[in-house]
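Changelog-adjacent note: as of this version, every example in the card shows the full chain rather than a window. The one below runs 67 residues end to end.
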Amino acid sequence: MTDTQPSQPERKVDRRLLELLVCPVTKTTLEYDAEHNELISRAAKLAYPIRNGIPIMLADEARPIEV
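Full-length structure tokens:
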């Protein structure tokens, strides 16, 4: 017997919320990347993850990207 739980569907992010959010590092606008479920800050070259429909706006949780 395994301790795996059935996967839950990914929760969608409210588009109105996305319009209000800015990069915590540069205070610039973010782009939504639906394919990777991330918010992209081109100015900071960071991608912030979205988990269970909640944007994780911590620089420590973001992954570096090449722009």
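Structural remarks: The first strand starts at residue 31 and ends at 33.
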